[in-house]
Please model this.
Amino acid sequence: MVTFCGMTLFGSKTPYDDGIDVVDKDAGNLSHVGMAAYEILRTNHNQHHHSLWNVTNGLVVGDLHQTPKGATFSSKDDPEEGHDDWFPEKMMEIMGRTEHWCDLLSLGPPDGIFMVKMKEAIAKIATNAQGKDKPVTVRIMFGNIVGMPVNCDKLLEEFTKDLPSDANLQMWVGAWRSGTSWNHAKIIAVDGTYLHTGGHNLWDPHYLKGNPVHDLSIELEGKVAMDGHMYANEQWDFIIDKQSTLLGQCAENLPDHLPLIWKNRIIVSEYPKSKAAEFPPKFAVNSVPAPDRGDLPQLTMITMGRLGAILKKDRPSDDAFVAMIDSATTMVRMSLQDLGPVCIPNTKMALPGLSWPKPYLSALARVIWTKGVDVEIILSNPASIPGGLGPMEACYGNGWTCVDVAAEIIKRIRTQFPEAQDSELRQKVSENLRICFVRHAKTTTYTDGGNIGLHSKFFMVDDVCSYTGSQNLYVCDLAEWGVMVDDVEQTQKMLQDYWNPMWQASYTGDDCNVQEVMDGLDVDRDGEEIGILDMANTSKYEEAARSGANHGAATEFYGGEEN
Model:
């Protein structure tokens, strides 16, 4: 069992069901990996079917959206100016297709080109809405990072200031925090038909300027987009519930020196003030016209997410990840920012209350030991800072080495299989476990010496299915969402277009020394345990929650806690 600042993550050993097994009619074509995820979701998280998880179908549109583009991996030259300006334009082109309903979720407000293109998309939606009987609905959700609540009024004013006075749309901008949880999902869902999701935030300096951090998202079409709207409902329900009660209003205004675990910070603004209700409507299947899905064959997919501290115990996607890893028979490949927890700056000491994600590590250990599965992991170089920003604005890579990560995985073999001999463990490190930092043409830095960063949350199991989403695998109890594409042909395309160029550029065999891994098996890398009611540790809670929470450059759209 894993905890974060006193809260239980990865659920408990008791299923949270109501005695009714879910049977999803779309589950018939799942691979062994998809079936493993489906079985744990339908038995342990059945009450969240169609809200936090669902078996569905759709199409992958084009290639994975990777920034910088894949050709960067084979070049020692830095990306040219304007290298990825296409990306915000593409994101907002999807948003601008809206005819009836748009949901956008992201960590924080857009800046730079992202803001420009988002305003253009909203203007396009207003044009689309002209002459319609009902106004178009736009719901926008952000996370309230500790000490940096979103100024929703000011942001909404910026989004709408150039719209005509009679614009036939209604828009809501919301943001929330519950203790040390907030929204971290990145979703654009349009009319139950178009979907964009993955790891990208809406921040110009992080992706579009010098030393850009690598990230990954996916564009989908079809029924899968419905699930993005349904997931957004859950976060809006939380805002409505907390804002509608006296207790919620009081808790919202608690000063920051009280323990964060007791606090909710809920903000919502509506447009136009004279016409829109205080809260947005709830999306339903009949909120949009039934789309024409066409005759193209649809790929089987599973959408999966979590709500962090909004739910006391359930973390559906966490359990699905473990089940997917446990199902592996040949290969697990992961492209991740980190596996280790956020550290105290300039050290390899985990922040108080933080630990390693032992359920994931234990699953990797099990398949390596019992099945001889190969595990390949690409991680961000520590302390990678893009776009000329400061370390408090952006820092990708929590500080752990590949040796640390490998040692934590092998440690879990030793814990679960105490009969394992030293020579056998060494063999597993040498033959089955390959971990490296991301590189361009075998180098870990840009030409100015800045480390190359990685922010993707992507993994493949047995090369038959993949997950692309917002959820980090290091311990951080945020609201997350992503999509598992369960199709061999599409996974092979991702392997060729994304994984292989990155792996060929990154893996040297030098990041993981077998002896150093074995020497590190007895090192305790977890953070100091802190009690949930220990008032003296308030600053540690805040540091643990905020450290590693990158944010955008549009500081004018953040407020102070006293607002």
Remarks:
- The two ends are 37 Å apart (CA to CA).
- Residues 3-8, 11-19, 254-262 have pLDDT under 50 and may be disordered.
- The chain has 14 helices and 19 strands.
